[in-house]
Amino acid sequence: MRARNKPWADDFLKENNHIVELTPFDHKDKWKTVFNDNNPIHLEIGTGKGQFITGMAKQHKDVNFIGIEIAKSIIVSAVQKVSDSEQGNIRLINEDAKDLREFFGENEVEKIYLNFSDPWPKSRHEKRRLSYNTFLEQYRDILTENGEIILKTDNKSLFEYSLVSFSKFGMELDEVLLNLHEENDPLNVMTEYEEKFSEKGQAIYRCKASFKK
Ligand code: SAM
User: Which of 2, 72, 118, 132 most suits a substitution to test ligand 1, by most atoms within 8 Å of the C-beta?
Assistant: First the structure.
């Protein structure tokens, strides 16, 4: 996802610090106090412009959603969307997901969504894929015992790679769909990329995987 440099982004994020957590490491093990309730926490990695997280937060008011997005020029759009949605159960983090353990304690997150993650097709970039085993180690640590990863993509190679990576890590595959939209899942919330690719007629893949804890 490309976005132009936005020189006003820093000020915008500071003004919206009720939505963007500017010091997320301060909340490690304490996210429940941020939301002021005991609802489960779901995490989206690579939130993009925020369509999925706002849609999910409207649909599941008894869940708290946290979105992490590395690109400042992109997260500003998500912040605006969250603000417009007036949902109190969403927070955003402008950081790299490689440092997840600095932001979340053990068993603090119930579900992790990987939506249309960058595929990094070159093998020398394998370590950057969000389903690479160093990421899986972090997910295992922060997820609850029955926690789950839900991955959606249009990219067949990334999908296959992720299924193999999950299996090699000893995870259980709870669902594997090769054409999500054929299933008519009424609870599916589309991301920006999902809309774009499905309009072009591309199949959307989805899998759900869990760690055997
Ligand atoms: N999830 C959105 C969707 O489905 O429409 C956006 C998909 S876009 C292809 C991938 C997003 O993940 C980009 O916004 C990118 O900046 C973000 N991203 C990539 N690597 C990341 C990382 N290590 N930590 C946090 N965000 C990341």
Answer: 118
